[in-house]
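Protocol step 4 of 5: obtain the predicted structure for the target chain.
Materials: sequence only (see below). No template structures provided, no constraints applied. The aim of this step is simply to have a reference model before the mutagenesis design in step 5. Sequence pasted as it appears in the construct record:
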Amino acid sequence: MKKRDMEKFKKLLEGQRDELLQNARKTLGGDIHLDPDDFPDEIDTASSEMNLAFQGRLRERERGLISKINQALQKISDGVYGECESCGEQISLKRIQARPVAELCIDCKSEQEQFERRNA
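Step 4 output (structure tokens):
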């Protein structure tokens, strides 16, 4: 991958990471609690609890994405960004543009998904 492309993806990944971290700070800074006195009935309480659970799952997914972004940024620093972790071939630029944190080329990712479907 060209150095110019790596710099472009580095800026993109850093921007994504910063946005995710900012969202996490907003969530942590918010008033996240359930006070039973705030809800007139059980349905409102259940709805609020479901919303909090959804937000928790969303934040967990974002935490995983931040980890992948950090790994991709480390690969850029190491000069190996864009190399498939399975076969060592270069991941296509189209795939990297679609998913900057991609670890596998499209062929290896397809094989992995087929294996997972067979063993599920």
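Step 4 remarks: The chain is about 70% helix and 0% strand. The chain has a mean pLDDT of 87.
Proceed to step 5.
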